[in-house]
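Researcher: Structure prediction, please.
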Amino acid sequence: MAEQKYVAVGEDKDVAAEGSDVVDVEQLLPALECRVFVKNRAYFLFVTAREKMAEVWRKAGRALGVRAPTDLELEALGPPQTEAVVRAFELCREFSGPSLFNHCMRAYYFAAAVRWFEAGSLEGLDLEQMAVAFAFHDFGLTATSRGESEESMYPFEVRGARKCLRFAATQMQLTKQQLTVIYEAIRLHTALGFEKPTELAGLITVGTCCDVVGYRCEDLSKKTKESVLTAYPRLDWKKVVVKAFADDAKMPNPSPVMRRYQREYFFNLLVRMAPFSE
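Model: Predicted structure follows.
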């Protein structure tokens, strides 16, 4: 399996500069977790209709040769080889296993490619924060996370967000606001019925949904998609993700969002119908 090469990782360090304010993660977490995002069914239907109309418009443009996605090399999409990114993906590989790790990598590249299609570049994106968020976004689905009894009171999205927040606070020199952006992006990545509060939150949803159910695959060129799949094969991903959510349903506090998708939107069927062979 071809893989992105990263530089060697140095020892963990406290990146907060001397004399700067250090964010107290354990004080920040309760404030973040008490924020309530209410899903409005009518708004969800509006967003769904709007996205469907946008999809039809994009496909029509492609058919007419007006706007076709660009062939992109993986090197053009990142992620940057910083110590934080290297360490994040090393941990992701360690706790995820091959199939889930490859999903995290594909989701990152798919999100970056869709953003390139929309904006013509990745300018303005903090690719380091984006890569770290993708590395941890599905941590809550891993056996490691399920074995952490003190975290079992949270749904898997929140478990991943908490893990990433603690990592970012020690490995990256981020402000309280930047940490909040990462936390909420992971927490809301399965919530399709919300207007996402930040671009990062939207991109994590786009990347993961592209890889799981084929959402916005039409915005990837055939060459770009094949490059990502060659570098990070799916490794029977459809079966893996269906089982992962079945295992999550057995947790004390399973994801209410995913349970709704499974009951009302035939999630398992959507996974099987995704435009990938496995």
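Model: Residues 70-273 form a domain with the Hypothetical protein af1432 fold (CATH 1.10.3210).
Researcher: Thanks, that helps.
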